[in-house]
């Protein structure tokens, strides 16, 4: 199966309603917290894809219809009762195919950590069905992994590193999150 076909199949399985239980380890505060999130993933139109590109001043991209693009809406409740809701549009533009790996840009019209459009890097392994997304925010670098176990189960891992000075490696973790995501029938 072609790499792009596996990539599109991954996203086809992601469309729908999901429920997740996560555990967050706040290493800088020596605190552990659980949360529950319900979210909905739905495809977006070529018009919305074009708007996500424009919001990020990305430039011209050919054949928008072939790009995976989605609307993500979620509601999270922490064990402390704190609630967070957000809706955003996102788009994946593949730039490199090497072996079983696809890489490119992951664009959002609204970032999770900062309320602004943002371009991140993604890497997708067609053998393991792992999507790895790296975002450079102002204070942290977020490395977010989604591994599709089967069409109704995903494993999520979130590593937020304190942003190092330019040219320095990622070393100091501020947050580690783990979760099991189940598709809701």
Describe this structure in words.
This protein is mainly beta and 185 residues long. It has one domain (3-184): Calycin beta-barrel core domain (Lipocalin), CATH 2.40.128. The protein is built from 2 helices and 10 strands; from the N terminus they run H-E-E-H-E-E-E-E-E-E-E-E. It has helices at 3-14, 46-55, and strands at residues 16-26, 31-43, 69-78, 83-98, 101-108, 118-125, 130-136, 140-150, 153-162, 173-184. It has a 10-stranded antiparallel barrel. A hairpin with a 2-residue loop joins strand 4 (83-98) and strand 5 (101-108). The chain is globular, with a radius of gyration of 16 Å.
Cα distance spanning the termini: 28 Å
Return the string of H and E elements. HEEHEEEEEEEE
CATH class: Mainly Beta
What is the CATH architecture descriptor?
Answer: Beta Barrel
Shape: globular
Q: Please provide the count of β strands.
A: 10
Query: Count the helices. How many?
Result: 2
Strand order of the largest sheet: 1-2-3-4-5-6-7-8-9-10
């Amino acid at each position: 199966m072609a790499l792009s076909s596996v990539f599109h199949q991954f996203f086809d399985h992601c469309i729908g309603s999901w429920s997740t239980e996560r555990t967050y380890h706040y290493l800088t505060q020596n605190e552990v917290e659980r949360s529950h999130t319900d979210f909905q993933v739905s495809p977006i139109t070529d018009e919305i894809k074009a708007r996500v590109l424009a919001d990020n001043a990305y430039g011209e991209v050919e054949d928008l219809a072939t790009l995976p693009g989605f609307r993500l809406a979620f509601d999270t409740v922490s064990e402390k009762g704190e609630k967070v809701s957000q809706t955003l549009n996102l788009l994946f533009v593949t730039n490199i195919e090497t072996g079983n790996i696809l890489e490119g840009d992951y664009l959002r019209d609204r970032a999770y950590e900062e309320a602004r459009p943002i371009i991140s890097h993604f890497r997708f392994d067609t053998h393991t069905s792992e999507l790895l997304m790296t975002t450079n925010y102002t204070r942290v670098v977020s490395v977010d992994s989604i591994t599709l176990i089967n069409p109704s189960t995903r494993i999520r891992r979130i590593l937020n590193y304190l942003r190092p000075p330019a040219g320095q490696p990622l070393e100091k973790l501020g947050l580690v999150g783990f979760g099991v995501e189940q598709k809701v029938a």
